[in-house]
Amino acid sequence: MTAYAKQIRNAALAATFTAIAALTAAANATTSQNSIMLLSATFDARQVAQVEVGDFHFKPGQVAPVHTHTAPTVGYVAKGEIIYQVEGEKPRILRAGDAFYEPAGPRILRFDNASATEEAIFIDFNLEQEGEPFIVFEEQPTQAIDRRSLPTIDLGGEMIDQVNIYTSELPRGGTLKLDTYESTLGLVSEGVVELRIKGKETQRIVAGQSFSLTQSDVQSVIVNASPEVPAKVVTFRLR
């Protein structure tokens, strides 16, 4: 092989390797930001003093009492299926991986476990003004409700009128960068992640745990902490 032919071959190989590296980087960037909007909820603007978070575990066949919310409520079904009905609307099925919105005011006629044999788990975030209750029952429940409180989030009266809910798949080593202009509530639904905020200690968060970010938390990044399995994060972005 002549020297000129070798130069041609080497140049071609270098171009091929460069193209492969570029494609790999593009693929990693895409999978790291694999976010899908599940739901967008809008309501009358309100000064949210705090966000109270409940993790509910419903036994097979468990029925929720008729209730109302004085604060808008958004949430996510982590396991099983829920029959959901707002007064004046038809009932519908919420499945694992679905987000939901319970408006303030109307009666919630049904929020029941749809299965007679399987547990259902859902997490909700109540955007409360000062002094508002978590939930209002028309009658005291006759069946015990397994509600496990997660940390309440102090928003200090931030004005909110919209919540956009996203689910994000993080592959091994994947990252999710969050905007700094909006407060964000979060739930790790699968796997283990690290929440990295510039100037703060890294938080390790496992499936079933919630977290929060305020507008002042700059350069916030969520990283899949496992080198072996993917993670899934649900974010509730407040506007």
Q: Can you describe what's shown?
A:
The model is unreliable at 4-32 (pLDDT under 50). This protein has a domain at 45-159: Jelly Rolls. The chain has one helix spanning 3-32; strands at residues 34-58, 67-68, 73-79, 81-86, 92-95, 99-102, 108-113, 120-128, 136-137, 146-170, 175-178, 184-190, 192-197, 203-206, 210-213, 220-224, 231-238. With 239 residues, it is mostly beta strands. 13% of the residues lie in helices and 54% in strands. The protein contains 1 helix and 17 strands.
CATH-defined fold name of the domain at 45-159: Jelly Rolls
**What is the N-to-C succession of helices and strands?**
HEEEEEEEEEEEEEEEEE
Q: What would CATH call the homologous superfamily of the domain at 45-159?
A: Jelly Rolls
Q: How does the helix and strand content classify structurally?
A: mainly beta
Give a brief outline of the structure.
This protein has 239 residues and is mainly β. It contains one helix and 17 strands.
Question: What labels describe this entry?
Answer:
single chain, 239 residues, mainly beta, Jelly Rolls, 17 strands, 8-stranded antiparallel β-sheet
Topology overview:
Elements: H1 3-32, E1 34-58, E2 67-68, E3 73-79, E4 81-86, E5 92-95, E6 99-102, E7 108-113, E8 120-128, E9 136-137, E10 146-170, E11 175-178, E12 184-190, E13 192-197, E14 203-206, E15 210-213, E16 220-224, E17 231-238
Antiparallel strand pairs: 1-8, 1-10, 2-9, 3-6, 3-8, 4-5, 4-7, 10-17, 11-16, 12-15, 12-17, 13-14, 13-16
